[in-house]
Structure formats: structure tokens, C-alpha cells
Structures
1.
Amino acid sequence: MSEKNFYLTTAIDYVNGAPHIGHAYEKIMTDIIAKHYSQRQDNVYFLSGTDEHGIKIQKTAAANGLTPQELCDKNAKSFTDTWELLGIDYNKFIRTSSSEHKKIVQKIFKKLVEKGDIYKHSYTGLYCSGCECFLTSKDLDENGCCLIHGKKPDEVKEENYFFKLTKYKDAIAKHIKENSDFILPQFRANEVLNQLENIEDISVSRAKSSVQWGIDVLDDPEQIIYVWIDALSNYITAIGYDTENPACDFYKNWEADVQVIGKDILKFHAIYWPAILMALDLPLPKHLLAHGWITIDQSKMSKSTGNVIAPKEVLKDYNLETPDAFRYFLSTSAPYGKDGNYSDVEFKEKVNADLANNIGNLLNRTLNMLVKYFDGEIKSEFKAYGDDEISKKAKNIENDAHFMIDALKDKFDMFQITEAAAEIVKFADIVNKFVNDTAPWTLAKEEKTDECAKVLYTVLEAMHYIAVAIYPYCPNIEKDINEQLSLNDSSYKFSDLKWGDLPEGVITEKSKIKPVFLRLDSELATGKKKG
Ligand code: MSP
């Protein structure tokens, strides 16, 4: 029985290029949150998609001899193909060039006009096609170039529609101040409050004479709805706002639980989007999770530097059959909300240390001992605690396992993905220490069979907890661990997880034991990757 609905979204990516590690970072994190909340038995609805309109697409398509729609179709597919490869299990993928989206955006625009929140105004401004927005002096460097894109914006003089953002300024500030967990991490809230101080009404349309690839304003076909109002609306058009048959049954009381976005687009989500929702009398999302940026070898990823990495290349270079190592590394590469870095060396070191050595070896050597000393069999008496020292230590491991699951939930309450993973590694460290301290190989040699059995059994129970805990990050490793423990149901909910669940009888034999994760510098895993 599901407890509650949990609606989460990612930013929708521009399709003027192929997906890179930065896009992947966000989608993987959101997928991890979705999987974690499914483990809590929430009824999760996960939305992702692509942002397809705007001058950049129009220009790139023209330069490539394609229609904008053809370019979008081609590039959107490279995004969905990549997400499939990375095991991103969204419920819906919205494309803003779809007719379902366009129709609803037109209705939203009309509603805002009728409400008196949109008005026409003649305007001269500096437009950055990288940001797809008008810039103010604060967005420019000393040479008059965009701070993010380093390019001079175009001077544009147009008659556009404007949205009365200023009308909602106080209400937004109040909301941010009264809901300290609206913007996460919390350290970003002040940045938004400062931006809010200086906001003006915003342009929400462009003249068709300058941009053609977009959604027509219903009653004024000479105007195209500006990309941000089009893009932000995806979060409600995708689930059927203002339609007879919403895509998911919890639309009626629409409220996103968490919207995952990069720090660069926090302003749009923490100011523009709440204002639009308020104007439509809709509830605001409960949380906005603003993540940092991923650099490559400590440099900003950019086409001109030539350091843009496609996720599928990493999987190919390392001959990785599953995305688990990449998912694990990327999602834990940055502290909460801060920037992270990808480098081949860090990738190899981290996954080797955590997945191969810490977790993988623990399972491997324990199963091997179970086969060697007990013919791979678990007996009911292994499960009982006595008054001896080993039993006391084993009981502590059981307590630590429950503690780890509680700590995970606490971290995920605030979407602290890196910090939650650290709890799993910490627990695996404790279990490794337990094995080293109790030395089951010595106990076997000394014929202390009961104690030896208790140690091995405790470790294998702990492995089951580790498998379930790591599932959101590494779903294939979870499956592999559980299979080797003769636990075949791989979709564990936290409520199903019980100490003592391991089956009795022969759970494994020598030929069935295999590493759940191969070290990346081992022959099998390195593939053609050098060094
Ligand atoms: N289309 C807009 C978002 C509209 S949401 C209604 C956009 N697209 S984007 O393709 O430029 O970026 C999509 C997401 O990827 C954003 O959240 C952005 O922060 C994130 N990233 C893009 N490059 C990134 C890194 N190098 N590292 C981490 N995330 C980055 O903005």
C-alpha cells in the first residue's frame, strides 16, 4: 500500500547538443531520489524532458540544413537513449515541441492575460541566446559580456508581452523566509532573496520577426511565447494541467515534492516559477533542490575547450555493462549543493575503493568462507544470539544496520545524496572491521564453529542491508548481491527489510560466487581505457 504521492522533476535540457556528464548528474540524482522514495513505498511520479524552443535551436537547425523540429527529434532521442543507458526510470518524458504541451501553454498564457498579469510593452534590452533571457547590468562583465556565457548579448528592441513579476515579489520573499526548506541547500536562499530585491517585470514573449521557433500567443500570432514561460510550464503541462484527463491521478492537487535543478537556473525556479504558480492559484513546490556544477579535471565543460564528455563514452571506455559505477561516482562527486569534479583517476579510485574493495570484497570473502567452512549452508542456529563476545558484537552490527537505514532516510529527507551514500560506506567499514576483529578464519582453525558461523551469518545479513541501501545508486549491484544471497526479490521496500531474512539451507556454492563489481583497473574492466 502506498503511503503518499511523491512528484519530482528535473530541469528539461536544451537540445542544441548531445547530453553530457552535467545533464547526466542531475538526471541520475533525481532517479536516485525517485528510487529511494519508492523504497519508502511512496507513489512516485518522476518527470523529465527536453526544452526545445528558442533562437539557439532555430539557428543550429538552419546551420545544419534541418527544420527545427527535425533537429529536436534527432537530439531529443540522444537524450532519451542516454537516460535509458543510465537506468533513469522516469514516468514521463515531456518534449516542449509536443502539441499537448503547446496547447496548454497557450491556455496558461491566456489565463495570465485575463488575470491582468500580462501586459504589452515596448522594450529595448540585451538578449543572451545562451541564457535565453534578457540580461541586466548585474549579469554582465566589464566588457559587457554575459557572465555565464562570455558572449556579448544582442541588443533587441521589440514590443513584447510582460509578466507582472513585481506584483508577486513580497509574497515570494515571505514564502522563502517562512519556509526554510523551500530552497535547498538552505545557503542558497539568501542569494535568491538578494536577486528578488532587484527584480523587474519580465518579458514573456518575443516578436515573430526575431524568433519563429516557439509557441504562438493565441490571440496575437505575431508574438511567440518566450522560452522560460514555455519551459517552466512543463512541470504542470506534463501531468495534464487544465485537461480533462490528467496523466497521473494525483494531478488534482498538483504540488511537486521536489524540483531538481542546477544552481544556474535557481532564479527562474525560485522567483519566476513561484510567481507564475501564484498567478495561476496553484501551490508552490515543496522543495527546490539546487545542485552544483560538474567540472572535468577541474575545468568548466565547454565545446570550445573540447572537454565535453558524453556519459555513454565513459561506459564504453571502461567496458561497463551496467551504469552503476558511473551513477555511484557522479551522484556522490559533490557535497550537498556544491560543485563536483569528474576525472578518470577519481572515478577509478572511488569506485574501486567503495564498490569493489569495501562492499564487493566483503561479500566475496564471506561467501567463500561460508562455502569453505559450512558448505555454503546457513542453519537456523546461526541466527540466535548467546551471551558470548561474538554475539554481543553481532548484535551491535544488527543495531548499526538499522541505524544506517534511519540515517539514510534522514539524509534523503533533505535530498543529501552524497551524504546518504557515505552512511552506507561507513556501515560497510564497520562490518569489515567486525570481520577483521573477529577473524572467522582463525575461529575456524580453532574449531570454534559456532562463533565462526555467527560472524559469517551476521556479515551476510548486513550485506542484505547494504544491498537494499545501495539500490537507488546501483540497482544492478543490489540485484547481484541479493541473488548471491539467494534472495530473489530485488525490489525491497524498507518495510520488507528484516534482520533474519536470509534463507536457511545451502545459499551458495563455489561456482556461483562472483565479484559484484570488478575493479576498474582489472583486465576485464579496463577495456581500451589506458592507465
Ligand atoms: N532548458 C533550461 C532549463 C529549463 S527547466 C524548466 C536549461 N537547460 S540546460 O540544458 O542548459 O541545463 C539543464 C540542466 O542541466 C540544468 O539544471 C543545468 O544546471 C544542468 N547542467 C548543465 N551543465 C551542468 C554541469 N556542468 N554540471 C551540472 N549540471 C549542469 O537550463
2.
Amino acid sequence: MIRHWCDAMGDHNPVYTDPEFAAKSTHGEVVAPPAMLNAWLMPGLAGHRGSPDNPISALLQKLDAGGFTSVVATDSEHEYLRYLRIGDHLVSEQHVEDISAEKQTALGLGHFFTTLTSYRTEDGEEVGRMRFRMLKFRPGTGRMASAADGGAGAPEPRPPRPRPGISHDTRFFWDGLGEHELRIQRCEECAALHHPPMVRCPGCGSYSLGYTVASGRGRIYSFVEPVHPKVQSFDYPLVVGLIELEEGTRLLANVADVDPELVSIGMPVECVFRETDPELTLPFFRPIRPARREDTLLVGDVAPGELLDPCPVDITPTQIVAGAIASRDYQDVHHDRDLALKRGSPDIFMNILTTGGLCARYVTDWAGPEAQLRSLRIRLGAPNYPGDVMTLTGRVERCEPDGTLELALRGANRLGDHAVGRVELSLPLRTNR
Ligand code: ZN
């Protein structure tokens, strides 16, 4: 279960999977990723429809019977009292805290309800708590339904991007993009690289020109954000960057998947290829996923106001399904596109547990393997549908002398904020080393 979760979340923190590392850590042994707290008691494939003995399943069935057959999670608050260890056996106690009156939401007409679950070991020790808020709604009664029918909410078709001027000397570059290769012209005589491509090597004068395939990694050398007038074929906000590639040449391209306010000169970026229309593939550059910290930050290493480097996450069907199954969440909207459509959703979408797992990974990748999560609170907004990118960003809000940190998190996709949240974690004290 732990390895399956870490694999799906791309979480390589060795305290979860490496017994030797874990033995020398503050934990003394392998521990479970705290964000998978509720995965342990999910009913699984056979039991996901619930039993009438369980008050929450009974409530869900009552709402189903009233026509509120679709469900989305809106808020999740986890508190981690201690990390779980191999051999722990959990039991849970669930309470329904509140049920709202019927409300009109963007998804449809429905009822919000909140549950509180307390997780204990068999000998009664409370190890975690979860407050969970969900919306049960009637499919086809929201704004998204009218958009799908081609109603007022449907986006207008827009003109394609302007075509590049392609000549005999530049064709290799554009052909390369179609094959997801970023090609740089190279002189066959003196090996000098040039971009944009030239007719003749400016160094040695040779006409013998080939190309090399760039790694796609580079840094932002300079950038500008055109604001006005808006051109219909571009996505806004629009950032145009001069990217200095590892190989040394520079090229102009759009910087994507990051709030323009977080773009900075020197920012490490990587190339992603995108079909902007069926006949044109262009290179975009986005922040590189921050490297996982191998040591752990200590008290005093961090100050309020510090920003975490942005981290884009590709939202693919595989990522959504892998996260749902690793969290033992068999709600059809997270793995079955046909049933998701039937329930009024344009596609499958990421479950809240995966969002939580990705947020937890982001924070501990930044703080280091021995930083301990104390709580994780997430509010969901725009869903993560396949084909989108969610970019995680974070800011240190509070630092206590005892090593407690509070961070504000945000996961934004092309529709808006997918998730906003708060996480509390503890750093080891300096005297421990
Ligand atoms: Zn040359």
C-alpha cells in the first residue's frame, strides 16, 4: 500500500520506503505517508457502495434516492497526531457533523455535508483525524451542463496562431517540433551552434550545416508580459521568454504553467511540446519540478515570506486513475470516463486524496525527508481534468522557535485554482544534529 501510494504520487521520500534510511531517521523505522490516512480504511472496490449500517453510506443512499446521485469532495482537513508504522491496525469512528439545505452550485443543485472521522489504533490511541466536506448534487442542473449542450457557457472557437515563416534553412527546426525534438543548428566544420538558423556558419563560413537535439533544459534570460492589445489566438496571461538553453543558444518561446508574477530571470525551465492547433506544435517552457531535498531544513533555515519554487504536475488520465486506485477511491468519476459524462462531468477528474498526496509530496520535497506533517487542509475549486497542468506554489506563513511551520499552498490549473490549502509541519531542532 505504501509503495503503491508513493509510486502514484511520485513521492520518493526514503522514510516511506527505505528501511535503512528510515532506521536512522527521527522515525526509527519505515512510516506511512501521512496524507494517505483515509486510504487505510476505504472500503475498496467490492465495498465502495457502502453498507446501510454505516451512517455515512446510509446518508449517501438517501441522497441518491432523492436524485442527488453525483458526488464531489470540496474540503479535506487532516490532522496527523503520529505517523503510522508497519503493523498498526486502524479503526475509525465517523460522525456526520452537518448537512446543508438544498443549494444551487456551479455543478448543480445539491446538499453539502461534513463528516468527522477519528482514526485510532486497536488499543485506543488516536493517531489522526479527518474532517471531510462533500457535495451531493443532481447531474445536469449546473452551469457546466449548459456549457456541454452548447449553451451560453460554451467557449467560442478562436482563430489559430499565426503561422511561422518556414524556409529551406529553418525547416529542420519546425519538423523537429513535430517530433518533439528541440533542434539547434550546428556547423559540421567547427561545431558552433546557432539559433535562429543561418544560411552559413558565421564563425568559419562553412555551408555544411546540420543540427543537434537540445536537452530542453535552460534558464530564463529575459522575459516580457504582453498585456494589450490581446490577440485572440493566444492564452492569457501570456509570458514571452528569451530562454538560454544549456547548450548556450537562446530562443524565444512562451513561458507556461506559472503565474507571471513568479517568473524571474535565471529561473530554471524545461521545454514541453504542445499542439497549439492540429497543424502546429510549439515549444513552451515551464518551471522544472524542484529537486527533492536530501537533507532536512532545520529551525532557523526558514523565514516567513519565503516562497517555494513552483512545481508543475501533468494531469494525465494515468495520473488521475493511479492516484484514485492508490488511495482506494473507486468512485467512478475518477476512473470511468463514460460514467463521469453521465454524471454531468466533462471527463474523469482527480480525487481530493491525490491532490492531498501531491501537496504533501511538494512540501516534504521542499523541507526534506525528516520534516513531519502535522496537518493538511485543502479546499477544492476547479477540477483537475486530463490534459491540464496543475502548478503547485507555496509560501511560508509562520515559523515557531520549536520548529513548527505553517505554509499556504495553491494548486492552479488552466481553469483557475484547483486547490488552496494550509499545511503545518515540524522541522527537526538544530540541537538534534
Ligand atoms: Zn563553422
